[in-house]
Design brief:
The chain is of the alpha+beta class. The chain is built from 10 helices and 19 strands.
Length: 342
């Protein structure tokens, strides 16, 4: 694919549409030497972007660039650097040169803010690579894997994007979940150790829990919203073709797991096993088993589903708190019982 030099200069002058910007980004990812030809090194060093992208523009542009990036692997560090610069400095150019009037106070405020940039690590070495994240969590990134995250994370969550395989040891932070996106699977934790295997050419995405608790949720249609809660020793597999989640003990052969029936509850006397059960139905069962009162709005919780294994010996408050936290719900307790709400 060849890109006209005039289109690249149009991009640097902030005159491209989001689609044109994504096209240029994809081209420069493959041909970083073009960037050097247009912008000498001293110009890169002298450039100081003065504004952030508006949220809508940023998401529009990043979505296009991410789609392009998924189709091509970085060939060397220069290509990766080009993409990072495009996401940071290039995005600022695109916004700075857009013909949109802004109040002087707003512009001054934006200039005081440094543009947010993604950190990208692509590991091609033979040995596992250890990465310490901004929150002191640790990642053991396996060969042939790529990990990306927003520098410093955000005030409300710690989001990362993984292609390949890695083991995570997460530092617990109340109110700021740790989320790993791998294909159509989002794994949410508060503080635990787990491993994800999500290579692009594999038929499944696997999440193995080593300690703590974790919630795994599908994110792509038509299976979006299906959730699985794992306990230590369990692994779940998302079949990309069938678009289904299966839970099993990771000591079992891979051929053993089969797609479970949805809406199923099993009681073996000591444990309750739920498979894609609506959360209101789960809470009704908790009431009967633990002899407690749980109030909630069925309408509020109708789109939440639960898949997991609960020991009857576990305290109901701990179970409810875990489910609530991982789903951004709230739970309170008073003399009348427990209350679950959004």
């Amino acid at each position: 694919m060849m890109i006209d030099r005039a289109l690249i200069e149009k991009f640097l002058q902030g005159q491209c549409t989001a689609l044109e910007a994504a096209t240029v980004a994809k081209y420069l990812e493959q041909h970083p030497e073009e960037l050097e030809a247009i912008l000498p090194e001293q110009e890169w060093e002298a450039f100081e972007p003065g504004a952030r992208l508006r949220a809508a523009d940023s998401e529009q542009m990043l979505d296009q660039v991410r789609l392009a990036a998924k189709r091509y692997r970085y060939r060397n560090w220069a290509a990766a650097a080009a993409v990072i610069l495009l996401l940071g400095a290039g995005g600022a150019w695109w916004q700075l040169h857009r013909k949109v009037e802004q109040p002087a106070a707003a512009i001054a405020s934006q200039r005081r803010e440094a543009p947010a940039r993604d950190t990208l690590v692509r590991h091609t070495g033979r040995n596992t690579r250890r990465i310490v994240l901004p929150d002191s969590s640790e990642v053991m990134l396996e060969t042939g894997s790529t990990l990306r995250w927003r520098h410093g994370f955000t005030a409300t969550q710690r989001a990362l994007y993984l292609e390949g395989a890695a083991t995570f040891r997460v530092t617990k932070e109340e109110g700021r979940p740790f989320i790993v996106y791998s294909g159509n699977v989002a794994t949410t934790v508060l503080g635990t150790t787990f491993r994800i295997c999500a290579y692009e050419g594999h038929k499944t995405v696997k999440v193995r829990l080593l300690s703590g608790k974790v919630m795994v949720k599908t994110t792509g249609a038509p299976a979006a919203g299906e959730m699985v809660y794992l306990t230590p020793g369990q692994e779940c597999a998302f079949n990309k073709g069938q678009r289904s989640l299966t839970v099993y003990r990771y000591g079992q052969p891979e051929s053993t797991p089969r797609a479970p029936l949805k809406g199923n509850i099993k009681d073996n006397g000591e444990e309750l096993l739920f498979t894609s059960v609506p959360l209101p139905e789960v809470l009704d069962r908790f009431e009967a088993v633990y002899k407690v009162r749980i109030t909630f709005s069925p309408q509020q919780l109708r789109k939440y589903y639960f898949t997991g294994q609960i020991r009857k010996s576990d305290a109901p408050e701990g179970i409810l708190q875990t489910i609530a936290t991982l789903n951004r719900l709230k739970v309170t307790h008073d003399s009348t019982g427990y209350h679950v709400f959004r």
